[in-house]
Amino acid sequence: MRIEARQQRRSGGTTTLVTLTYGQRLSYLQTLVARSLSNWRIQRVIVVNNASSENLRALCAAWPDQVEIIDLPTNTGSAVGYRVGIEAALRRGAEYIWLMDDDNAPRPGAIDALHQRLFECAQGRGWDKAAVIGFRPTHQADIAAGVPRPFAVQWRSSCFGFHVAQLPYKVWRRTPWGRPKGKRLPTGLVRLPFTTYGGLLAHRSLYERIGLPLEDLLLYADDTEYTWRITASGGDIFLATEAVLDDLEHSWNIKARTANIYETFLLGNSEFRAYYAARNQAWFDKHVWAASGWLYALNRSLFLFLLRQVARRKGSLERLNLIEQAIRDGESGRLGAHESYPL
What we know:
Number of strands: 9
Strand content: 15-25%
Largest sheet: 9 strands, mixed
Number of domains: 2
CATH topology of the largest domain: Spore Coat Polysaccharide Biosynthesis Protein SpsA, Chain A
Structural class: alpha/beta
Oligomer: single chain
Helix content: 40-55%
Order of helices and strands: HEHEHEHEEHEHHHEEHHEHHHH
Distance between the termini: 45 Å
Number of helices: 14
Radius of gyration: 20 Å
C-alpha cells in the first residue's frame, strides 16, 4: 500500500470514474466498478442514475466511501446524465475524469496505459488540450480490422459517414485484394477528430475548457458534438490501442450487427433510437461537420438515394419515412425531446 501511495503522489492527483445507468443494468455496472476500483488510480466512482429500476445502493455497500449515486427522477438521456456526472466530479475536486458507459469495463492494464498515454500527449500540448480514449474493438471495428486511418474516420462534409470521395476505397475493400486483413492494427496512438464518451480520459482542465454536453441532443451524437469541441479548439484526441475495453453488451448500431449503415437504421428494432440517432447526426453533419455546403449537399443526396434503394429492397418504407423526418428535424434545428419518442 505504501508503494501505491508513493506512486499516486508522483502521478499528481486522483481519477474519478463517471458513468450513468438506467433500466436493469446493475450486473454490467458492478463489473465496471469492480474492475475499475481494483486499480489504485481510480479513487472515486460517480454513478448517475437515470431512473434505474434496480437497487444501486448495493454498490455503495460494496465500496463504501468510493461510490456515489446521483439519482435523477426520470431517464434524461446521455447528454444530461454525463453533464450531471462531469459537473459533480469537477465540484468534488477530481483531477482526472474518466468517462465510461455502464456496459464497458477495462481489461487489465488498460487504465495504466491510458494514464501513461495521457501524460505523454499532454507534455507537448498542455493538460487542457489532450485527451485519450480506450480501444473498443467491436465499436471501433474499422480500426480493429486494419482499415487505414484516412478511411476509418469520418471526413469533413460527410453525411452519416458517407463521403463520395471514399467510394473507390469502399469498393476496393470488398474485393479479395482490398479486404482488410486485421494484421495492420495500429500500435500506439491513433488521432481522432471526435469520439464517444465511453473510455475518454482527460485532465479536469480540459473539461473546464470545453464545458458540458449539449442537453438538447438528449442521446446519440451528443458525445460526437461534445468531443469535437476538443479538436475544434486546438486540442487532440488519441485512441490508445493498447488500452483495451470490453463491451459487456454490444450497442444497437455497431457494424457487426448489419451489413451497412443503411440496414442499421432501417432494420433496427427501436424506433426511438433510430429517430434520435438520425436526427442528431443530421444536425451535427449540417451545422457542425460540414466544411463545404455544396459537398455536404452532394453527399446527402447520394446517401439518401442509397438509403431509399435499401429501404425498398428490404420493405422498410415506414422506417424510411421516420428517418427522413428525423433528418429534416435535425437539419432544421428541432432538437430536444420529441413527444412521439419518449425516453
